């Protein structure tokens, strides 16, 4: 079940479905680049519910994170259920997944996941559930089975300054966003001066991926309006577009924000 979330004053962020109550961390966007280094931090969320040291969940949690790191040297996505089908009590089972951005080489994927695994344990110590998004990869685990369940809740957004009265830009942007809605997995698109890419998590079916990307594109338009560049991260997908040459490591024109999530029933 998705509980009420609390904003922390040091830029912490959003919800993950079924995480009891999350605190979220935000990336300052002043150093955001088009394809910046994969380990740059975007957001994280941690459950307030904690497990006890030496509990069955701790052992399975450690095994899952080890499996995530090992698998990342061979594949850009994988999911796990550690302790499922054994004598482990239900509260001891650990479900999780990881995914790298589709354009990363295997070695870069593995390095990104290593960074994410190290950070998630520091940011969310003893948490029963956590999610951490870096620029190039994503890691999530929980004690409840969330795998394959569509989640289009807003996790994080960033929008640039507005572009006014540029009919050509908006036409090109809409062409790119329309192309991204039909992505299966990772897709890059461009039209004239506008570029973009999008990706779904690997546990989604093709129909759920399409639904998630359609929701992400709608959020980009609704939340960022006439922005020259924008990113939206939903629970199981993300989409991004920018005007060519817009992202500049020296600029601080982008800003990040998010919406508080209120109490909501979990999806059946």
UniProtKB/TrEMBL annotation:
Record's protein name: PLASMODESMATA-LOCATED PROTEIN 8
InterPro entries tied to this protein: Cell2Cell_Antifungal, GNK2, GNK2_sf
Origin: domain of life: Eukaryota
Main localization of the protein described in the UniProt heading: other
UniProt entry tagged with the keyword DNA-binding: no
Membrane topology term: Single-pass type I membrane protein
Matches recorded under PROSITE patterns: GNK2
Pfam families membership: Stress-antifung
PANTHER family noted in UniProt: ANTIFUNGAL PROTEIN GINKBILOBIN-2-LIKE (PTHR32080), PLASMODESMATA-LOCATED PROTEIN 8 (PTHR32080:SF2)
Compartments where located: Cell junction, Plasmodesma; Cell membrane
Species for this entry: Salix viminalis
Organism lineage string: Eukaryota, Viridiplantae, Streptophyta, Embryophyta, Tracheophyta
GO cellular component, one term: plasma membrane
């Amino acid at each position: 079940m998705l509980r009420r979330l609390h904003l922390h004053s040091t830029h912490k962020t959003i919800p993950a479905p079924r995480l009891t109550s999350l605190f979220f961390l935000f990336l300052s966007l002043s150093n955001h680049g088009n394809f910046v280094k994969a380990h740059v931090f975007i957001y994280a969320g941690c459950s307030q519910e904690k497990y006890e040291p030496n509990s069955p969940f701790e052992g399975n949690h450690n095994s899952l994170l080890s499996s995530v790191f090992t698998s990342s040297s061979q594949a850009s996505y994988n999911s796990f259920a550690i302790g499922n089908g054994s004598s482990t009590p239900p509260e001891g089972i650990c479900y999780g997944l990881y995914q790298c951005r589709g354009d990363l080489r295997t070695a870069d994927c593995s390095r990104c996941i290593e960074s994410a695994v190290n950070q998630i344990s520091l940011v969310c110590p003893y948490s029963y559930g956590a999610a951490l998004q870096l620029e190039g990869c994503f890691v999530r685990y929980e004690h409840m089975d969330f795998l394959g369940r569509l989640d289009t809740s807003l996790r994080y957004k960033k929008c640039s300054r507005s572009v006014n009265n540029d009919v050509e830009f908006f036409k090109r942007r809409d062409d790119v966003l329309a192309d991204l809605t039909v992505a299966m997995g990772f897709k890059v698109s461009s039209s004239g001066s506008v570029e973009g890419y999008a990706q779904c998590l690997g546990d989604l079916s093709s129909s759920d991926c399409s639904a998630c990307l359609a929701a992400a594109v709608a959020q980009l338009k609704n939340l960022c309006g006439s922005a020259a560049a924008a990113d939206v991260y939903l629970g199981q997908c993300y989409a991004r577009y920018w005007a060519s040459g817009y992202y500049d490591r020296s600029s601080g024109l982008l800003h990040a924000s998010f919406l508080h999530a209120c109490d909501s029933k979990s999806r059946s």
